[in-house]
Structure prediction request, 352 residues.
Amino acid sequence: MKKRLLLLLMTLCFGFGLKAQTPEVTVNVEEVDETSALVTIIPNEYCAVFYYNLLSEAEMQAWINYTGFEVGEILRDYGIPSEETASHFFDGLEPEVEYFVWVVPADAQGNLYNVQQVPLVVTPTPPDIMPDFTATDIDGNEIHLYDILDGGQTVLLNLFLRDVNSEEIMPFVTESYRLFGCNQNDVFFIEICPQDEDEACRAWAERFGVTYPTISRTGGGNDIAQSIPVIYYPTVVIINPDHTMAYRDLYPIEGTFTIVNALTGLGCEQHECTENVDEDNTSVTLYPNPANDFVTLIGENLGTVNVYNALGQKVEEFVENGDELRINTTQYENGVYFVKTGGQTMKFVVKH
Prediction:
């Protein structure tokens, strides 16, 4: 009985001794971003060498099918070997794919031990959301950013200081405004003048022929710049209809093509600008002007009729197969509006 007990104790001690000398590694996954991760692998004192790689479950299974080997053998023959602590930067990873750090330690005789499998998932950076704002332009029009975006338009903000650098890009911005339909189609242009009051910004707009909304410091321009925030001027910010920033800082603007390429790359299409008002048009008659409760258009085969406010936003659309259209203006706010029918554009004023 005593011999049997002694044998059992010797077996337990021997077993614990072997366990204490097992080659092992510690795997630390660090600095994970949307396409990369830093992995550090630390061997213990009994580990003479280890082999590792970063693969998804599907990729490892493909290796197993191809070679017919066990995972440890695949790592030994095709993995990355190291005899000491290794820090490896894995790049080009796909977001939302579950990867694993596969590691197999070995002793001095080359014997492989238990494979470790540590999960690693990279996640995309959350979208850059443009804060909402309500501001007043230099003509007294109220501009609510999310109303424009929710209407399906992409918004381009030109943020500038009245200096030489800002002067250089102005022709490119105004030309792009015309190429994309003067705020009546896919893109809505706004310029932000954060450091100056209305009169100085108005002089700037007149100098460069700006007819799209200009928001000065008085109207909230500096608050908008701070909410982005803008570090360098000038800059162009482009905002998608889903409120995300497509470009937080589109710069340098080397020509009109810089803006055109950015917008067309987002799926925005160019359109003819119909900003010029045909005050002498005689084929279509509009009355009364100013209007209160209604305005009437008379012309031959009017077809599609669009009404825009002073900011270039479409207010209503009508299809009239006849020669007369009566538009109810009781819900329109006081201000200037434009009617487009065919190739003709007319201006009228609503005054309740």
Summary: The chain has three domains: 21-121, 134-265, 284-350. Residues 134-265 form a domain with the Glutaredoxin fold (CATH 3.40.30.10).
